[in-house]
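[audit] Reproducing an earlier prediction to check determinism. Same input, same settings, fresh worker. If the tokens differ from the archived copy the diff job will pick it up downstream; this log only records the rerun itself.
[audit] input (418 residues):
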Amino acid sequence: MSKKELMRYKVVSRWIDGLITGSEAAELLNLSYRQVCRLKKRILEVIHKNKGRKPAHALDDEVRQRILELHQSERYKNCNDVHFAELLAKYEGIEVSPSTVRRIRLAARIKAKRKRRPSKAHRPRKRKPQAGMLVQMDGSFHRWLEDRAEPMCLLAAIDDATGRIVAAVFRPQEDTEGYFLLTRQMIEREGIPMSIYSDQHMIFRSPHDKLTIEQELAGESKPLSQFGQALRDLGIEHIQAHTPQAKGRIERLFETLQDRWIVELRLRGVDSIEEANRVLPELIEEHNKAFAVEPTDPHSAFVPLEQNQPDLDLILCYRHWRTLGTGQTLSFDHKTYAIAEGSQKSVIPPIPPKTRVEVRQTLDGRLFVWYKGKAYPLREIPKPKRQDAPSKQKAGSGRNPHKPAANHPWRKPLPLIS
């Protein structure tokens, strides 16, 4: 609409509302009375007859009040508008759009859960073209069950190409065993990825990973953590991020999960870490259905675990070094172990005595000696009880000790020297 048309519309609208007369409208627009009558007729044809009336499809006041009460209830507290609209359709049978929820909330003068911040200008990193080329791992320690349980840590792995959660597990704290379980879950569901992206937590790197110049010149390799050794055996490249912004995809994932899963766990009545892990597959499926995207290349880079590869129990485990004794025994955790009978028949040659061997301890507590790509199960040997030797008395004459008499010179005081 041009400036001239807008001026005519405003003047004629004032005539329609009864604020001025037709002659005054014609004088203001410098038109004849017949011309402003034609303009008035056109404007009245454009204006809908239901102006000022409530639309037939408008939300009932009772439904609006019900939505407002549910929004303020303990059951749905701390929900954002989009998530609340989804929960209303799922649990209450009320299907409304997030914009309708937002209008109801603003009409009641209820502030949003999170203040909208202006977007920051940054250059986003392109997603990997194939699923499985890069998987980001991290943990988020939070009150996932609010006041119903102690805070716990959610370990999650997200595929960079699709944004899908490929594995997740709740743990009391962020630990190596938790990442072993997370990796096992990912491999069993999807396969072995090409690379894993993580932060510089001591779980992912050794405290002695910085080599001196002499060690580098000698060709020594950096020591790996327990988790790093497992990734090496699986053929997974490990990439460490230097800043939280570098792994922004999983950082934003935890923001979304803290915004949604706390409410979802509350609605399901979850009040323990065991129950939370039981409902995790359902939560992961719902999240992937809502937020995952299609990769650029439909071919997956995840590699299934081959049959000739060692068991995952012997890869995702703790490793220690011991020296094998002459009797095929070794000491571990203040106990004595020997190679189980029959384990050497299929392995040639047997382990020579005094050999430095790797002891692998699985997550369920079993022990194995790992030697030249073979696993030798260990069995505990009870230590023989030592009998205490009888105490020996010192040989003596048997006489009573001599006691000086009362008038003995040793008992007399010394004379004073003047």
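[audit] rerun output stored. Observation attached for the diff report: Residues 37 and 148 are 72 Å apart (CA to CA).
[audit] end
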